[in-house]
Amino acid sequence: MAEINMLQAINDALSIALESDENSILFGEDVGHFGGVFRATSGLQDKFGRDRCFNTPLTEQGIAGFANGLASNGMVAIAEIQFADYIFPAFDQIVNETAKFRYRSGNEFNVGGVTFRTPYGGGIAGGHYHSQSPEAYFTHTAGLKVVVPRNAYQAKGLLLASIRDPNPVIFFEPKRLYRANIAEVPDGDYEIELGKAEVVRQGSDITLVAWGAQVEIIEKAADMAAKKGISCEIVDLRTLSPWDVDTLAASVKKTGRLLINHEAPLTGGFAGEISATIQEECFLHLESPIARVCGLDTPYPLIHEKEYMPDALKTFEAIKATVNF
Amino acid sequence: MSNATSDNETVHRVSFLDRESVNIPILKILQADGTVYDNAVMPVIDEALAHRIYDTCVFTRVLDERMLGAQRQGRISFYMTCTGEEASIIGSTASLDDGDVILAQYREHAAIRYRGFTTEQFMNQLFSNEKDLGKGRQMPIHYGSAELNYQTISSPLATQIPQATGVGYSFKMQGKRNIAICYFGEGAASEGDFHAGLNMAAVLKSPTIFFCRNNGYAISTPTSEQYCGNGIASRGPGYGIHTIRVDGNDMLAVLAATQQARAYAVENHSPVLIEAMTYRLGAHSSSDDPSGYRSKDEEAKWQQHDPVKRFKLWMINKGWLTESQDAEMYERYRKEILAELKVAEKLPMSMLDTIIEDVYDTPPPRLKQQLKDLKKHLKKYPDSYPNSKGRL
Ligand SMILES: Cc1ncc(C[n+]2csc(CCOP(=O)(O)OP(=O)(O)O)c2C)c(N)n1
Question: Name one GO biological process term (chain A) (predicted).
Fold first, then answer.
C-alpha cells in the first residue's frame, strides 16, 4: 500500500488495465507523450507504445465515435475527454450510439468495452467552461453507466471495474481532488463493484447523500451538525446509473430524513430522481421533506463561485432545517 | 453543373490522388531582413496604417509579457499569449472594415486591440472586476465587445466556426457589404464544427473568411498528430472554397491575402479560407509547460522568424520608424499597462445580483427565489464569502 493522489491512482489503474488486457487501448487529446493536461496518463505511452496509448486529433465527436467502433469490434476503448465541459460535441455519439448499440441491434453488436473518463466539477476558478457537472444528461440515458469516485482508493478500484464492465461507462473524475486527495491505495489489481453505494459514516438523525467531490463537503457539514448534537449518516452513491436504491432506502428508513447534495444545478439534477424514488420507497418513514442542496439554476459563475457552491455551510443550514422541521 | 463528374478527365487505369496531388504555394512578401521579395505584389498600406499595425504589435507584446508576469505573481488566475502570431492576427484584422464581425478563438486579443479595446478594458476583463463588459463571468482572456463587433470568446473549441457562417449569411440577407471573419487553430479544425461550418458557408454562399492560425501545436499535440493532409488549406478546395496559404509571420503577406479575400467575399457572397503558417512561440497557456513536448532548439529556430521584428525592420527601412521611437513605444505601454493594472485589480467584483442576470432576458421566479435564499444565507455567514461580504 502506498499513499498516492487520485491522478496517480488513475494512472495506476490505466496501467493495470492495459497490462492485463492486450486488447485495451487508451487515447484522447494530449494523452500520448505529454500524459494529458492533468498528467493522468503520464508514462503510459512509453510503457505500452504509440499504438495503444496515443493523442487523437482534436475532436470529441471523433473520439467517441472511434471508441464505439473499436469496442463494437472486440476492443476495450478507454477514451479521455479533456474536460467534462467538452463532452457535448460527443453527445450524439454517446447518447444515441454508445448507449443504444446493444439495444438497437438485438445484441448482435455492443460497445460494452467503452469507458469515457473525464474530469468534472468546480471549485478551481475555472468559470463556466471548466467547472460543469453534466452527469444528469447521461443518467437520463438508458444504456450508460455513470460512475464518480470520491478518493484515490475508489478512483483506482472503480475505474478498473468500469473498464472491465461489459457495459459502456462514463467515469467522472472530480478534478479539484486530483492532487488534493491522498489516500492509501493497494498496489495490485482490485475492483470496486459498480452500482453499490457505500455507507461512509453511521448516524441516526438524518441521511446525507452525495458523490465524488461533494462527499467531502457533506462530511464537513456532518461534523458541524455533530457539534449541535445532530447525528448524520453519510452515504456515497459512487455509481449514479444504475444507482443503489436499496442501500439509500435502508439508511433513510433508519434515520427518517434525507438530504441530497450535488454541484450541478438543482432543476433537472440527479437529486430530483433520488428524491422521487426515496419518497416512493420510504414515504411512511419520512419525518420531514427531502432536502436538496445543489448548484443554482445558472451557468457556473467565475467570480461568484463560492456563493454558487453547495458548500458545507449551506448543507449544515439545511440539515438543521430538516431536523427541526 | 451540380455534379461535376461529366467534366472530368477519364483514365482507364486505377490511379489515386494523395497528399502530394495537392500543391499549395505559400504567399511571402516580406523577408527576414525587412526587405520585400523582388516582384512581390504589395498590399495596400500607407504610413498611417503601418503605424496602427505596429502600435498594436507593441501593445500586444507588452500586454503578454506583463500579464504572464502578473499570472506568475498570482495577481490573475490564468493567461494566454499570442506571441509569435501577431502578424497573422493583426495583418488580417487590419484588412477589414470596422463593421465586419470578428469571431475569435481565444488567442486573438491583438484583433480586439486593433479595433480599439482600451488598456483599461483589457484589465477589467483580466481582473474580472465590476467594470468588465462580461460581468466577471468568464476566465481571463475571454474578451468581447458589441461596440467593436468582436463577439465574446467561448471556450469550447470551433463552435464559432459555423456561427461565423451564420453571421456572414446574415450580412448578405441584410444587404450589407460586410463579412464575418472567424479565427481558429489547426487543432480546432479537427472538430466537426469546422467541417459543418465550411460546408455550409460554401453551399449557402456566406461571405465569411475562415482564418486558420496554423501554429504547429494544439496544447502538446504537434500537427503531425493532428492531420495527415496538406495542412488545413487543402480542405478549402474540397468544400469548393476559395483558398490561400500565407506565411503567417509575414505581416505584408497576411495583409495582402486578407485584403483580397475580403474583396472577393463581398463581391461574390462567398467564403474564403486562409491558412497562415506560423508558430506558437509561447506556452499554450499559463498552465502549460512546453518543455515536456518540444525542444528549446525548435523554439529558438522560430524566434528567428519573429513577425514583429520583421515588420519593424520594414518600417525602419521605409524611414517610418526609428529604434528610439520603438523603444519609447515599449516603455510607454509598459507604464500604461502597469498603471491600469493597479487600478483594475483594486476594483470590486460585480454585485451578487449579477449571478442571476442574463441567464434569461429577465430572471424567472425560481431564480429570483434562489437569489433571495442565497442572500439570506450570505448575511448569516458574511465572513465565509469575502467577495460578497457587505455588498449584497
Ligand atoms: C471542444 C473543446 N475540446 C477541448 C478543449 C480544450 N482545449 C483548449 S485549447 C486546446 C488546443 C487548441 O489548439 P489549436 O486549435 O491548434 O489552437 P492554439 O491553442 O494552438 O492557438 C484544447 C484541446 C476545448 N477548449 N474545447
Answer: response to nutrient
A308, part of any domain: yes
Q: What is the ipTM of this complex?
A: 0.95
Mark whether A153 and A213 lie in a shared domain.
no
Q: Read off the CATH number of the domain in which A235 is found.
A: 3.40.50.920
3-state secondary structure (DSSP) of residue A194: coil
Is B284 an annotated catalytic residue? yes
- Cβ(B265)–Cβ(B201) below 8 Å: no
Is the C-alpha dihedral spanning B193, B195, B198, B199 positive or negative?
A: negative
Residues of B with CB below 8 A from A55's CB?
A: 220-221, 225
Are A11 and A156 contained in the same domain? yes
- B359 to chain A: closest CA residue: A298
Please say if the pLDDT value at position A316 is more than 70. yes
pLDDT tens digits for range A208-251: 999 999 999 999 999 999 999 999 999 999 999 999 999 999 99
Rounded distance between C-alpha atoms, residue A169 and residue A112, angstroms: 8
C-alpha to C-alpha distance for A185 and B217, rounded to whole angstroms: 36
Q: What is the pLDDT of residue B182?
A: 98
Query: Last residue of a domain, which of A185, A217, A240?
Result: A185
Same domain, A64 and A18: yes
Interface test with chain B among A30, A56, A118, A303, by most B beta carbons within 10 Å: A303
Q: For B238, phi and psi rounded to 5 degrees?
A: -60, -35
To the nearest whole angstrom, how far is the Cα of A196 from the nearest Cα of chain B? 33
- Residue type at B373 in one-letter notation: D
Task: Indicate whether A190 belongs to any domain.
Answer: no
- Total of domains in chain A: 2
Same domain, yes or no, for A18 and A116?
A: yes
Q: By the 8 A CB rule, do A293 and A315 touch?
A: yes
Tell me the pTM.
Answer: 0.97
How far A136 CA sits from the closest chain B CA (Å)? 20
Kindly give the pairing relationship between strand A291-295 and strand A258-265: parallel
Show the domain range for A269: 198-324
Write the pLDDT tens digit of every residue in A250-305: 999 999 999 999 999 999 999 999 999 999 999 999 999 999 999 999 999 999 99
DSSP secondary structure letter of residue A99: T
Domain closes at, from A124, A150, A185 = A185
Contact B83, B282 (CB under 8 A): yes
C-alpha cell at A225: 451538525
* Ranges of chain B whose pLDDT falls below 70: 1-6
Q: Rounded to the nearest 5 degrees, what angle is found at the Cα of A194, between the Cα atoms of A193 and A200?
A: 75
Whether residue A178 is found in the same domain as residue A205: no
Determine the residue type at A227. K
Q: Does any domain span residue A193? A: no
CB A185 within 8 A of CB A152: yes
